[in-house]
Design brief:
The complex is a heterodimer of chains A (344) and B (506). With 344 residues, chain A is mainly α. Chain A has helices at 2-23, 26-51, 59-79, 85-113, 118-141, 169-173, 178-196, 198-208, 210-215, 220-244, 259-269, 274-294, 306-321, and strands at 298-299, 302-303. A two-stranded antiparallel sheet of chain A has the order 1-2. In chain A, helix 2 runs parallel beside helix 7. Chain B has 506 residues and is an alpha/beta fold. Chain B contains 18 helices and 20 strands. In chain B, the strands form 5 sheets. Chain B has a 6-stranded mixed beta sheet with strand order 4-5-6-1-7-8, sandwiched between helices. In chain B, strand 7 and strand 8 form a beta hairpin. The two termini of chain B are 34 Å apart. Classes of the chains: A mainly alpha (344), B alpha/beta (506). The interface between A and B is medium-sized, with 24 and 29 residues.
Chain lengths: 344, 506
């Protein structure tokens, strides 16, 4: 008994001190934003797709393909086309967005045109993406990996703001990668798009009750294509971030490592709203950043593991879907193919 | 073929009723007019000019609007959002919510359809949801308004209000096409009648020059709708007794607020009420599909007295309770299974159909070969999937299964929904037969006529409460209709007065 309380007291106080010191690190918060960025882009994209009624669990595959092609195009642009590093990186980003949009179009085509099961199609795309990128990576780059001088998208220091020393806000918020800012912008834009534009209203109507939307003269199929492809484009940007962030780009096999699924979880925990998804992504990003910071720390005899922390998003998702933290209800027609010819 | 060379004409400022039995092709025809389906041949003429509708957009552009039987509304959207959807107030990108609210507000005033543009549609009662549908059509500038069975979900009172609206719209020069199978409504509201049968037009009549009997003749191709022959009941002892039963709905609200009644052997006990007032939950509680939160259900069968509240459906079935569910495609049948397999669902683990967990196909086939002719199931083939049968024949499969177990208590929920008159008659006869065999029959139906025709005693349910129980013949339709909407004795006279002008309008 006394031994146990001893452990708790001593271990506990060390632990809480450790936490405090960890939380004061600007690096923790910088990495939180950096980790959240690709999650946010994919989750916001998924939100748009599912709001139109097309389940998208293929963010993982879309990001992975996009990450590969961002590196490949940046590499080609730098070597074969002779572009300078900034232009080559931008070409990589464009390549990522285009390829991910194509993959998204494939998903949309199967789901909308052929009424395929959307979960099956999404899973097939994830597995296809993994196989395709592994094959291309090892075929094109062998065991050496992508070139070390691959163009990347470095962080930018925003004049004046990046110098703010209060709570290290300057270094946390204003010395980030441009794509991080785009990720936050995508949240605001997606919210405005879905809830304050005519097109957004129509997309949501298609995801709630496609037959009603059809009867109101809305082209259900076209809007679903649009929403799914938009989600692909955003996932593509997220994939480009994974490969190209920093002074030099880098692609490794399975570079996404499940981030698409974390984004999926964030979309659900965020209740299919862009700001909700953002909150969940920041939470999950924080968890990952923290996991790295505290990796190897012990609490008494218990050693904290990165793997435990990495389980958290999925655990939280199950809790969220289970309705324990407020009901998380998907759009009414999410996942249901729409066939206009089916008897009304 | 749902529509075979159909022609009909509708005139400005008039109300045309399109009548026909279920499956006569009314909805198919209207879906072609509203652009949801496309005719294989033939023309639609508008003001004498042929038009072609490739999609609902084209029909809307031609000022044809449809108020669908199953509302085409988005529950989580507001009234204003639903009305303007697809034709939002002009602004290129941003949705102008204020302008939408304003336009919907002024439109609802112009046509006397009172609604709050900011209400979420999912919070509105059905009658008001229908108004949203009507507004939607008017907002699109429709001159031809098609109403697909608009009173199916309304109370008698709401129906009368709707009729006033329809008269107003016609008076303002709109063309109204009113699809129904209720002859009373045809007589009350229409100027002319087009009768469909089996996808063909069989009659074009002027309402003032015809009568329900004539219309019925056209509809079913024979003289009159036969009423079920019924001897006075030979009452036995109480088979099921429901005492102060309460339960919750799927949404956690109270669905039954202390319901009590009993059904005796040899009687049909009818429960009338507008749908969604606890009937579904009542049936589910009695069949073990929904937990009872308070009260008791006592079943007396085969010399045993058992409290069945919160027993499993299987236990209740084994105690001699038969169940004809309201949605046969959902709870009544496994659509992908053969007719023969559907005929033994629920007793598939009993001899002779199964021995030590192994099915005995020969016995299952034998059972089907016996029941199929007995219940006139068509096509008479045991191996076809139940899903390929017509609605009436699917219901016969359910009936055959439930009847063949000789239930002591038979619970029939909306047993004739979606059936044509022939099949409905078959079901009615079957229920009366079971009653005459000494079974207790609980009939739950939203069709007041059906309840009044079949029942020996009638209960009215409203918001989870029994409003009254009457011996058949001691109560008229008006009284029941009033109780179905929660009205009590005191307001009875007054309500009739208020509604009298609307009734006389036809």
């Amino acid at each position: 008994m006394s031994l146990l309380s001893h452990y708790l007291l001593v271990g506990g106080s060390f632990w809480s001190l450790g936490i405090w010191n960890t939380l004061r690190q600007p690096l923790l918060w910088q990495t939180t934003l950096a980790f959240s960025c690709p999650l946010m882009l994919a989750a916001v994209g998924g939100t748009i797709s599912e709001r139109s009624g097309v389940v998208n669990i293929a963010m993982e595959g879309m990001m992975l393909v996009a990450a590969f092609f961002s590196a490949y195009v940046a590499d080609q642009a730098g070597t074969a086309w002779g572009l300078g590093p900034p232009e080559a990186a931008l070409a990589g980003v464009a390549g990522a967005i285009i390829t991910a949009s194509l993959i998204a179009w494939l998903h949309a085509w199967a789901c909308i045109r052929f009424h395929a099961n959307q979960v099956v199609s999404g899973m097939a795309i994830n597995l296809l993406a993994l196989g395709l990128t592994s094959y291309l990576y090892y075929t094109l780059y062998g065991s050496n990996g992508t070139p070390s001088n691959l163009a990347g998208i470095p962080n930018v220091h925003i004049p004046a703001l990046s110098g703010i020393s209060f709570l290290s806000l300057g270094s946390i918020l204003f010395q980030q990668n441009p794509i991080v800012y785009l990720a936050f912008a995508s949240v605001v834009l997606a919210h405005f798009f879905l809830f304050h534009t005519t097109l957004g209203l129509r997309i949501r109507s298609v995801g709630e009750h496609p037959r009603a939307a059809d009867a109101a003269g809305i082209n259900v199929q076209r809007l679903r294509y649009l929403a799914v492809i938009l989600s692909g484009a955003l996932s593509g940007l997220g994939g480009a971030y994974l490969a190209l962030n920093g002074p030099h780009g880098l692609f490794t096999d399975n570079i996404t490592g499940g981030r698409g699924f974390i984004a999926l979880a964030a979309m659900i925990v965020g209740k299919w709203t862009p700001f909700g998804a953002m909150g969940a992504c920041l939470l999950f990003g924080f968890g990952q950043a923290l996991a790295i910071q505290v990796a190897g720390t012990t609490l008494g005899n218990f050693q904290l593991s990165v793997y435990i922390v990495n389980m958290l998003p999925y655990l939280i998702t199950i809790v969220a879907v289970g309705g324990l933290i407020g009901r998380s209800t998907p759009p009414a027609a999410d996942g249901l193919p729409y066939d206009p010819a089916e008897a009304a | 073929m749902a529509n075979d060379r159909v022609s009909l004409e509708a005139y400005r400022g008039q109300i045309l009723a399109v009548v026909g039995e279920n499956g006569a092709g009314k909805s198919t025809l209207m879906n072609m007019l509203s652009g949801m389906l496309h005719p294989d041949e033939g023309d639609i003429l508008l003001d004498g000019r042929p038009v072609q509708f490739k999609s609902p957009r084209d029909a809307i552009a031609a000022h044809i609007g449809m108020v669908h039987q199953h509302f085409m509304l988005i529950p989580v959207f507001t009234v204003a959002e639903n009305v303007v959807l697809g034709l939002e107030p002009n602004s290129p990108v941003v949705f102008n919510a204020r302008e939408a609210r304003r336009e919907v507000g002024s439109l609802s005033q112009q046509y006397g359809l009172r609604l709050n543009p900011d209400d979420k549609v999912q919070n509105l009662p059905v009658g008001l949801q229908q108004r949203v549908e009507i507004l939607k059509v008017l907002y699109r500038g429709s001159d031809i308004l098609i109403f697909d069975e608009p009173t199916a979900v309304l109370t008698p009172q709401e129906s009368r209000e709707l009729f006033v609206v329809l008269r107003d719209l016609a008076a303002q020069g709109k063309t109204i096409i009113f699809i129904t199978h209720k002859l009373k409504e045809v007589m009350a509201i229409s100027d002319r009648v087009t009768v469909l049968r089996l996808g063909k037009v069989v009659g074009n009549l002027v309402t003032a020059e015809t009568n329900p009997t004539e219309i019925t003749k056209y509809m079913i191709g024979r003289d009159v709708l036969p009423s079920v022959h019924k001897e006075s009941p030979n009452l036995g002892e109480s088979v099921v007794e429901v005492r102060n039963v309460r339960c919750q709905s799927d949404r956690g609200l109270e669905a039954l607020g202390g319901v009590s009644f009993e059904v005796r052997a040899g009687e049909i006990f009818g429960v009338a009420g507008v749908e969604g007032n606890g009937q579904t939950e009542l049936v589910e509680v009695l069949t073990g599909l929904r937990p009872v939160s308070a009260g008791e259900i006592i079943l007396r069968t085969g010399g045993r007295t058992v409290s069945i509240g919160n027993r499993s459906p299987k236990q209740i079935r084994e105690l001699g309770v038969g169940y004809i569910p309201e949605d046969r495609r959902d709870r009544g049948l496994v659509l992908g299974y053969s007719v023969a397999d559907n005929l033994i669902l629920g007793i598939e683990d009993k001899r002779p159909f199964s021995r030590r967990g192994v099915m005995v196909p020969a016995r299952i086939r034998e059972n089907a070969r016996k029941l199929i002719p007995q219940f006139d199931i068509r096509p008479p083939r045991w191996a076809v999937p139940a899903g390929t049968l017509s609605g009436g024949n699917q219901q016969k499969v359910v009936l055959a299964r439930e009847f063949s177990e000789n239930p002591k208590l038979l619970i029939a929920s909306q047993p004739t929904r979606g059936l044509d008159i022939g099949a409905a008659e078959f079901v009615h006869k079957g229920l009366v037969e079971k009653r005459d065999d000494g079974a207790a029959v609980l009939l739950v139906s939203a069709e007041l006529d059906e309840v009044m025709e079949l029942s020996d005693r009638i209960a009215v349910i409203y918001e989870g409460q029994i409003m009254g129980i009457f011996d058949a013949g001691t109560v008229d339709e008006n009284r029941l209709g009033l109780l179905m909407t929660g009205g009590d004795e005191k307001t009875h006279e007054q309500a009739i007065d208020l509604n009298a002008p609307a009734l006389e309008a036809g």
